């Protein structure tokens, strides 16, 4: 940030936003509704939705997320099939496993935890997952369906962002939305989902000039830059809704670490609503994975074309 930007910063009170959207509670409610739908599916079709979770290597954060995904799958009454592969796994070995999972009728959803070790081309692996089982929504077929608004499986974090926004926004039409970050996992798909609701969407990224000024015009801000405390209070228009997707581990004074988002929430007393980190988008990402697995199982059992997302419950 240049010194002129720092000088331009308005002094805003260090107070809490009027609403802190509780992602943990929203996710728990969603999992409960999914569990009821799973029970109905089991009773009416005899099929239990099954999720294959593939973890390659020993990344500690990935290990935690995979454990949480498996625990939540069990909570929803689904089956999980855990595949933990060594850090040295080759791309060919991983592709062979994906081929087996694609052919396995007990598996309705396949998830390969990212990031993958350097020797594996993540794009090739994601492309190998059958689109109908691609519960992460990363396969080009699902990306294409999202961009044309023709159903399919939607990436979990963007889906979670929209569900969080839905708790405070009734009418999206005409609202100005600014997405910070252009990743395939969050920035681009969330921009498409906002566009689908007829928001006027601006996608910003590392090379965007005058980012604070662009954000200042937004009614909705989705911060997915992976940059701790990037978005300050004086970037946010009074009454805006802010979704913080950042999960950044930063040092604590006592030598440990803590997780912070991309947004300085304490400076957002003038915002209408903000998601906290932790406890905002993260838990929704996992709950939406279960929603996608239920959707995939429903479509595979009925033999139908990929559906538009059903609302659980
Ligand atoms: N195949 C995928 N890989 C990755 C994805 C993904 O959606 N699919 N997203 C991230 C990791 N991720 C899920 O996989 C994920 C990240 C964070 C959280 C979460 O609950 N975070 C907590 C805070 C962090 C913590 O407690 O450790 C929170 O926000 O409350 C859930 C899932 C990259 N890889």
TrEMBL record:
Q: What is its EC number?
A: 1.5.1.5, 3.5.4.9
Reaction(s) catalysed by this chain's protein: (6R)-5,10-methenyltetrahydrofolate + H2O = (6R)-10-formyltetrahydrofolate + H(+); (6R)-5,10-methylene-5,6,7,8-tetrahydrofolate + NADP(+) = (6R)-5,10-methenyltetrahydrofolate + NADPH
Known pathway:
One-carbon metabolism; tetrahydrofolate interconversion
- General function of this protein: Catalyzes the oxidation of 5,10-methylenetetrahydrofolate to 5,10-methenyltetrahydrofolate and then the hydrolysis of 5,10-methenyltetrahydrofolate to 10-formyltetrahydrofolate.
Q: Which family does it belong to?
A: Belongs to the tetrahydrofolate dehydrogenase/cyclohydrolase family.
Key words of the record? Amino-acid biosynthesis, Histidine biosynthesis, Hydrolase, Methionine biosynthesis, Multifunctional enzyme, NADP, One-carbon metabolism, Oxidoreductase, Purine biosynthesis
Please report the stretch or stretches of sequence annotated as the Tetrahydrofolate dehydrogenase/cyclohydrolase catalytic domain: 21-136
Subunit: Homodimer.
Q: Does Transmembrane helix count among this protein's keywords? A: no
- Record's keyword annotation contains Amino-acid biosynthesis: yes
Superkingdom is Bacteria
Q: Where does NADP(+) bind?
A: 181-183, 206, 247
Q: What is this protein called?
A: Bifunctional protein FolD
Q: Which organism is it from?
A: Sphingomonas rustica
State which gene encodes it: folD
**Tetrahydrofolate dehydrogenase/cyclohydrolase NAD(P)-binding domain location:** 155-297
- Report the InterPro entries cross-referenced here: Aminoacid_DH-like_N_sf, NAD(P)-bd_dom_sf, THF_DH/CycHdrlase, THF_DH/CycHdrlase_cat_dom, THF_DH/CycHdrlase_CS, THF_DH/CycHdrlase_NAD-bd_dom
- Cite the GO molecular-function annotations of the record: methenyltetrahydrofolate cyclohydrolase activity; methylenetetrahydrofolate dehydrogenase (NADP+) activity
């Amino acid at each position: 940030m240049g010194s002129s930007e720092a000088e331009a910063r308005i002094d805003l009170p260090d107070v809490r936003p009027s609403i802190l959207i509780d992602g943990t509670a929203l996710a728990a409610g969603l999992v409960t509704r999914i569990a009821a739908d799973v029970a109905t599916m089991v009773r009416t079709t005899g099929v239990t939705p099954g999720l294959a979770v593939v973890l390659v290597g020993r990344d500690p954060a990935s290990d935690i997320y995979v454990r949480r995904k498996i625990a939540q799958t069990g909570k929803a009454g689904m089956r999980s099939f855990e595949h933990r592969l060594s850090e040295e796994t080759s791309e060919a070995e991983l592709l062979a496993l994906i081929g087996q999972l694609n052919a396995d009728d007990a598996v309705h959803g396949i998830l390969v935890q990212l990031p993958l070790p350097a020797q594996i081309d993540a794009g090739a692996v994601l492309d190998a997952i059958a689109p109908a089982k691609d519960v992460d929504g990363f396969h080009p077929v699902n990306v294409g369906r999202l961009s044309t608004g023709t159903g399919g499986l939607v990436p979990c974090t963007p889906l979670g962002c929209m569900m969080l926004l839905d708790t405070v926004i009734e009418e999206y039409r005409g609202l100005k939305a600014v997405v910070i970050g252009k990743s395939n996992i969050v920035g681009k798909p969330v921009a498409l989902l906002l566009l689908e609701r007829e928001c006027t969407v601006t996608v910003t990224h590392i090379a965007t000039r005058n980012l604070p000024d662009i954000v200042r015009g937004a009614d909705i801000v989705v911060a997915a830059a992976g940059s701790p405390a990037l978005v300050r209070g004086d970037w946010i228009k009074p009454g805006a809704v802010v979704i913080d997707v950042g999960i950044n581990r930063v040092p604590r004074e006592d030598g440990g670490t803590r997780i912070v988002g991309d947004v300085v929430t304490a400076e957002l007393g003038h915002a209408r609503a903000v998601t906290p980190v932790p406890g905002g988008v993260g838990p929704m990402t996992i709950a939406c994975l279960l929603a996608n697995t239920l959707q995939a199982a429903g479509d595979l059992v009925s033999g139908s074309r990929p559906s538009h997302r059903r609302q659980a419950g």
